[in-house]
Amino acid sequence: MIIQNLSDLQQAHQQGKKFKYLPFWGHTPKSDNQIDKAVFSQWFPRDFVVDNIVYPTAEHFMMAKKAELFDDNAILAQILASKHPKQAKDLGRQIAHFDEQIWYQHREDIVFQANWAKFSQHEDLKAFLLNTGERILVEASPVDKTWGIGLAQDSAFLENPLKWQGLNLLGFALMKVRQQLVLSKLI
Asked: Mind telling me which Gene3D superfamilies this protein's record contains (predicted)?
């Protein structure tokens, strides 16, 4: 069974299937020049190119595509010029004519596209992601209930998706990227 979302994982868990989990949170590697699970963060600094535009982080890509989705070219330009992912995120919250329902329809695909570009364009990042094997990637953010699980890495419920407080959309997007890398034989 391929796990693509929280519902799939919860169902498999209820059926007694066992998984290995890899929690991550934060964008700063433990040491310089070391690839570790910080690469899974949307804020991890690694340039990638999509349609001749250089994005310094996946967060920049996500916020730029959000601005494009709602035709806010003024904010889009500011996002593309921003230097830090927090600045891009803050600008993304200022998008004119934002419609939450439309965003919900597109957000997972946009984050998949960002991470596909980031991991497929960098051999070291790709190798690290592929080396996670079949593990369930878990954004163990105690403050994010959309992209993370709403629980910290040291939570007793980390390996019980029935107890998660969030959707883990980033973790599942990364797992989809991993699956596509394997299927496309980009390894």
From this structure: YbiA-like
